[in-house]
Amino acid sequence: MQPWLQQHLPITAIEKHFASFEFYYGREKISMKDSGAAGLIEFLIRKLAHVVEYAILGGLLFQLLRKGLRFSVSISFFLALLFCVLYASSDEIHQLFTAGRNPKMADVYLDTAGACLGMSLVSLFSWIRSRKRGKAIE
Predict the structure, then answer these.
(1) Is the pLDDT of residue 136 over 60?
(2) The VanZ-like domain covers which part of the protein (predicted)?
(3) pTM for the whole thing?
């Protein structure tokens, strides 16, 4: 992805304006200085993909449990979140056995946050829709 980013983005300008940009992800320091603009942008895109992926998974699971299997909101939220945490954890455990990959608890936390975001958005949209219809949330 980095060659494409270098070709299509103003890398020099990004590096100039964000030269001192740095943060910690888990115990790892991520910085413009160490990664370069393309490396940092690739890292952010990959982590955003984690959030979106788990937001979709969490939202769909919550909806399945709530509407499909007719569990209560709290039970649906808990079970969907539990499944997402277990799935994210199993993915990181799998990385122990995959060459070139490193498991990180920070990824489990990020995936969990994505799942919570997805479930919260589904709840919010359901609430808005029920308000428009003049009904209370079931």
Answers:
(1) no
(2) 24-125
(3) 0.88
**Helices 105-133 + 73-95 axis angle, to 10:** 150
- What are the E-state strand segments in the chain? 22-25, 28-31
Strands 22-25 and 28-31: antiparallel
Q: Which residues contact 29 (CB under 8 A, 6 or more apart)?
A: 22, 23
Mean pLDDT of 23-37: 94
Domain segments of the chain: what residues?
A: 2-133
User: What residue type is assigned to position 96 of the chain?
Assistant: L
Report how far residue 18's alpha carbon sits from residue 134's, in angstroms, rounded to the nearest whole number. Answer: 49
R_g of the chain, CA atoms, integer Å: 19
Dihedral Cα 63, 88, 40, 121, nearest 10 deg: 20
